[in-house]
Amino acid sequence: MNSLVARLVLGFIAAALGGAPAFAHHLMGGHTPSTFTEGVLSGLGHPVIGLDHLAAVIAVGCLAAVHRSGSALAAAFVLAMMGGVALHVHGSTVPGGEMLVALSVLALGAMMILRQDMRAPTAFAIFIAVGLVHGYALGESIFGAESTPLFAYLLGLVIIQAAICVGAVHAMRGLMRSYPDLSPLRLVGAGIAGIGLAVLMQQIVPAV
Prior knowledge:
The chain is mainly α. Helix content is 75%, strand content 0%. Helix 2 runs parallel beside helix 7 and helix 5 packs antiparallel against helix 6.
């Protein structure tokens, strides 16, 4: 099982290093959703086609699996993500948003590797901050949309992120039953951190 997890980790990193176009985060060919159906589809697909966002949601689920307040933490992340979308839609500006996304993925991976017990207030603060950052970035694709596709987009986002979180929680808890030393958490964390580092380099290198 360890070798399988290690191969998955390496695969995630390779995909991040070679998948620059995937970080554009636009499911609808770059145009803003204009119908309820387009909004739902964009919300469902957006966090999946962006490997950095997908990595963050998986990391949130994995960390929630090993924390006493796991369910509440995952819910806080999803709610904060919606708040981040709302901030973007209402015209708030966050400089270096994509770089913050990369740094947040790197930080989540590091948390999984180090696996230091966090008090609930600290964990909530981190999850909320990460949710706001990712929500703000995700809000770019729905900026300027009318209320119907915007509502549909948020609905799709909540559904897909909740599903990924729950899946990650169950998968990690299943692995921990076989490996109580938390080695799967650290291995997956290494992959998450690798994705964060790869995306960060993509943000930094073009600017040099």
